DNA sequence: GCAAACTTGAA
DNA sequence: TCAAGTTTG
């Protein structure tokens, strides 16, 4: 710990390290933070509100999350004897300014992998090094570096299964590193902007009112969520994650998206449990963690994937659907209860059950024939777990224009999917109370219920609950012919 | 160059 | 049963 200090003492004394934090607001398993602590000089912990990311600013749901995450992280830093410094502006300029203010001679950060972010980092690193500042970047947002994995022929993977096998062949991911016990601050802390002035919380305060009942942003909340998941839900993961009413998923995605917990921490929390929990369940969960790795692998090799069809043949697809169609989907007024339940859960909770995401997304793309990019944008706006890689990759998967060669005729039937995965309508009734009194038999198809049943359930279709936006069978045929024409044109 | 394989389906 | 077409080893 003292070695570095002695090395530097002749030139720069105890010039501080700037620790630039991004979507890695945690103390545990944070390689840049650990390395900064180990230097034994004061650390300036910096978070920059940058003007534009690739896809524009964070959506309002994730901005709500960021507000609380920054506040928690500042509290955590205070326990280590430090504070979080907030600044706005173009990152390179902000760091230069802060170097001038503090006399820092070193900048550390954890790498990011979104195309705009990593390109910016490369530029900033070059500029700082030219100015004589030492810059070091660290891994930690992913289990393995996404550019490292290659097929036997040296190309990037396009298909998940072989990617998974190659991932497994790399052996266990590195163990997480511990949080440091102190992180000394400089004698004079640089000025910080005020978090409240950043106005990250929604302007309609009632919008996010339910978020805080469900989510606890911050590292402690993430670790608590992980612990409870491993204790309670992992043993029945495969069935639980397919059952919207039970929601057996881990709920870790927003924490991972903000870097409040590292994937290595999550991975290794599922080690050493084999006596209590079947290995099939653990593998199933790990495969989901590795899907995130795979999404970043694709994003690195297809930097425009959030906007551009990976399979360019789909550029010619003749999308339909008007503003009103789109608005009804956003609001959960499609007339298909499972879709509406999902879209309303999204609005109320900032998240939607995985199975229902597929159903709702398929409905937008196939039944309404609306461009997947509009759905992607809405999800980015409303999801607390919006992730530049996952969101684009999964929308492209649903739309059929992604890296995999899924059959184009796979169209989810919202009625059958509802009956299969929410047979008792528990999930639907929770989010679509106006159909709650329907018997199970009609809960996913109110438009087929006899008049007497509707009357009994106090439903007037078109008034108390919407008529179905499309006839699914016809919509399916329309989608198939649109997709077929793209195929034939090739 | 060939065979096997491919997250999540519908009728 | 149907019905694609590419990726990977």
From TrEMBL:
Marked site (Electron transfer via tryptophanyl radical) residue numbers: 319, 372, 395
Cofactor: binding details: Binds 1 FAD per subunit.
Coiled coil: none
Superkingdom in the source lineage: Bacteria
Residues covered by the Photolyase/cryptochrome alpha/beta domain: 15-143
Keyword Lyase: yes
Family recorded in the similarity comment: Belongs to the DNA photolyase family.
Record-linked PANTHER family: CRYPTOCHROME, CRYPTOCHROME CIRCADIAN CLOCK 5 ISOFORM X1
Protein name, per record: Deoxyribodipyrimidine photo-lyase
